């Protein structure tokens, strides 16, 4: 167990240093949660995609709002998994559990992550990555290949940077939902958890990547399993890495 230096006294949590192999079990735990109530999780996942897509189509501000709300929904999935493991039945309305408390903090987290992604995109452009989306309907595969010639390293840099930002903030929605942390405090703890468990997170994200490759093979039908498994696994990972320390042992009583 390890605690970051100068940690605030509340919430009383510690970060577990887990082995790299544990990352795969997080995804397995997510699948176990999905398998217990599969139809409910499929309904939650489809509803999430429909809501996010509908919001994204709002002119001008839609994509930004979708980015702001993403952590709110991820908090909802963690809360839904917690509710299920407590023995309760899930409902489609559980998709909005994250809106019931700390929603402003979660939206702030979404705004920060969106700004970071936009900043990475601008940085890639400054490094020479071509803008291919101004008139994509006019571009042929040959045009795309020519535009990317010698620029794939910038694409790899952007992908890696976004992945690191995502990993650093992966636990933040659950920390806000379950511990009432501020946005900065949740990001600090989430980043510390990533630094403490790089192997487990690397295995976890590799397992997610492989799962989605397999999910797309049967005409994408595997996404009905992959998406709920991913969403539920966020709670499993959080529970495994962040543990509430046991209460201090009572002081021994003086002999009579």
UniProtKB/TrEMBL annotation:
Q: Which domain of life is it from?
A: Bacteria
**InterPro entries listed in its UniProt record:** BPSS1780-like
Record-annotated membrane-spanning stretches: 41-62, 106-133, 153-178, 190-213, 219-238
Q: Which UniProt keywords apply?
A: Membrane, Transmembrane, Transmembrane helix
Q: Which NCBIfam families match?
A: BPSS1780_fam (NF041043)
Q: State the protein's name.
A: Transmembrane protein
Q: Which organism is it from?
A: Usitatibacter palustris
């Amino acid at each position: 167990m390890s605690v970051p230096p100068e940690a605030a006294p509340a919430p009383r949590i510690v970060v577990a240093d887990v082995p790299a192999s544990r990352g795969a079990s997080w995804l397995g735990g997510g699948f176990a949660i999905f398998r217990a109530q599969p139809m409910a999780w499929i309904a939650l996942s489809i509803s999430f995609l429909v809501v996010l897509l509908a919001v994204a189509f709002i002119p001008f501000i839609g994509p930004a709002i979708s980015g702001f709300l993403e952590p709110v929904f991820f908090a909802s999935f963690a809360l839904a998994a917690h509710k299920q493991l407590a023995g309760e039945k899930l409902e489609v309305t559980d998709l909005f559990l994250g809106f019931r408390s700390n929603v402003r903090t979660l939206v702030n987290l979404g705004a920060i992550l969106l700004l970071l992604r936009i900043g990475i995109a601008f940085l890639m452009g400054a490094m020479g990555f071509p803008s291919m989306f101004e008139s994509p309907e006019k571009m042929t595969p040959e045009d795309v290949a020519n535009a990317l010639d010698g620029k794939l390293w910038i694409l790899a840099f952007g992908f890696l940077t976004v992945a690191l930002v995502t990993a650093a903030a992966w636990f933040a929605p659950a920390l806000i939902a379950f511990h009432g942390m501020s946005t900065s405090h949740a990001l600090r703890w989430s980043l510390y958890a990533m630094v403490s468990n790089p192997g487990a997170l690397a295995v976890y994200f590799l397992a997610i990547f492989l799962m989605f490759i397999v999910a797309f093979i049967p005409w994408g039908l595997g996404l009905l399993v992959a998406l709920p498994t991913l969403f539920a696994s966020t709670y499993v990972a959080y529970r495994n890495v962040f543990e509430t320390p046991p209460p201090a042992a009572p002081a021994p009583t003086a002999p009579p």
